Amino acid sequence: MKINARKHLEIRLQNFIFTLLFLAVIALLGWLSTRYSLKFDWTASAQHTLSPASVKVLNLFHEPIQVTAYVREEKNLRDAIAEQISKYSFHKPSLKLTFVNPDIQPDEIRKLGFTDRNVIRIEYQGRSELVMEPTETAITNALQRLSHAKDQHIVFLEGHGERSPKGQANFDLGQFGEELGRKGIKFSLVNLAKTSSLPDNTDVLVLDGPKVNLLPGEVSQILEYVKRGGNLWWMADPGDLHGLAPLAELLGLTFLSGTVVDASTQLFGIDDPTNALVADYQNHPITSGFEVMTVFPSAVALDKAGESPFVRVPFLSTVRSAWTETGPIEGKIKFDADQGEHEGPLTIGFALTREKDKATPNNPDQKNAADKARLENQRIVVIGDGDFLSNSYLGNGGNLNLGLNIINWLSENDQLINIPAKVAVDKSLALSNMAMVLIFVGFLLLLPLLLFAGGAFIWFKRRGR
C-alpha cells in the first residue's frame, strides 16, 4: 500500500498521541503508588504482615501513637525495628517511629529510668509502655496494655486451697496469671481471714475452687461485695460448695448432682470421659465470634433456681451426648435417668447482669458520676469448672482466649474481647530416628548412586553406537 504525505502525517500524529497517553498513564500510576500501596504476603505464617489480632488492637486507638527506639547506631538492629514498626504504621499512619542513640543522649535515658540499652518506648495519651524485643507479640501486648482506659485490678481469693495465679503446679493458674500480666491486667491475692475487707480498687473478684469451707465472716464479705454491685467470677468444682451455698442462692443458681461426662470425647482422642466439650456458643458478648472448641475437665452442670434480681444467660453448654454421672466414673458408664442424672446439652456457664443500684450523692459532680454508673450493669460469671484455666489444660482449644474474654467482659473492656493471645509459631522440625536414617540413606547414599548409575548407563550406551 502506497502511503502519501497526508497518511504519513496521520500515522506520526497517532504515534505521538499514543506516546503522550502512555507517558500520562505511567505518570498516573507513579502518582497513585505514592498515595496507595498494595502488599501481598505469601509466606506460610504471614510473617511479613500483622495478624488480625494486632490489627484489631490498633483499631482501638484514635489518636497518634509515638514509638521511640533507644538503640545504638547498629544498622541491622535499626532496620529490623523499622521493618517491624512499618507493619503497624501501614494500618495506622498516625503511628510514628523515631530513633534515639542512647550513647549520645544519656541524660534522657537516665531521666526515663532505663537500665538497659536497646529499648522501645510506646507512648499514647501521656502513658507509655516499654518493649525489650521488636517482635509482634511484644509490641501488640504493649499496645493492648496502653489501650486500657484505666488500670484493671483483679483480686483472687486465697487461703482455702484455691488455684493460684502465681503457682506453677499443674493445678495452678500460673500461666494464665502471666498472660494477664502481659495484657497489662494487674492482679493480687487476698485472704479474707487476714484482711478486714476487699481492696477498694477491686474490679473483679475471682473465686476458683476452694477446697475447704470458708468462714462465715468471709462468706458475708463476699455477699456484701456482690450486693454492692461488685463484679465476680466464680469457678466451682463438682461436690461441696464449701460454704458458698448462700452465694448460689443470692445469684439464683443451683448446681446439679454429679460430674459432667461425655463418652464422645474418645472421637477426639480424649480417653477421660470427664472432659466436657463446648463447640457451639450462645449469643453473648463473651463468646461473640468465638468459634474455637473449649475443654472443661471435671465440670458440674448449672441451672436456674427460683427468682433472681439478675438476668441469667447461659453461655456455655455441652454437646448433646453429655450427661451428669452420679455414680463412680470407672469402667463402662451410661446415662441412667432413674438415678437422677440429667441428659445433655448441659449448661456449665452462666453470665449474670443487673443494673447497678448506687445511692445518689449530694455533690453535683458526684451525682453525674453516679448517674453514669447507674447505667452500667453489674457483671457476674459462674462456671462449673475451675480446671480449664489451669497450667495442665490452658493450652487446650480456646481455653486461654475464653478466659481472657471473660476477664475483659467482667472488667467492662468489651472492645478487647476476642483479641486472641498472640502465640509464636512453632518452626521446629521433630524427626524420629527412623526418619533421620531414611533421609540419610536416601539423600546421601541412594540418590547419588542412582545418579551415578544413570550417568554410567548413558555413557556406555552412547559409546556402543
Question: How would you concisely characterize the structure shown here?
Answer:
The protein is of the alpha/beta class.
What does this 3D model show about the protein?
With 465 residues, this protein is of the alpha/beta class. The chain contains 11 helices and 17 strands. It has 2 domains: 52-145, Glutaredoxin (3-Layer(aba) Sandwich); 151-412, Rossmann fold, CATH 3.40.50.880. A 7-stranded mixed sheet has the order 6-5-7-8-17-16-14. It has a 4-stranded mixed sheet with strand order 2-1-3-4, with helices on one face. The protein has a two-stranded antiparallel ribbon with strand order 9-13. It is extended.
Reconstruct the topology from this structure.
Layout: H1 5-35, H2 52-58, E1 65-70, H3 75-91, E2 95-100, H4 106-112, E3 119-124, E4 127-131, H5 136-147, E5 152-157, H6 174-182, E6 185-190, E7 204-208, H7 216-227, E8 231-235, H8 245-251, E9 253-255, E10 259-261, E11 275-278, E12 294-297, E13 302-304, E14 311-317, E15 323-325, E16 347-355, H9 364-374, E17 377-383, H10 399-410, H11 433-463
Parallel strand pairs: 1-2, 5-6, 5-7, 7-8, 8-17
Antiparallel strand pairs: 1-3, 3-4, 9-13, 10-15, 11-12, 14-16, 16-17
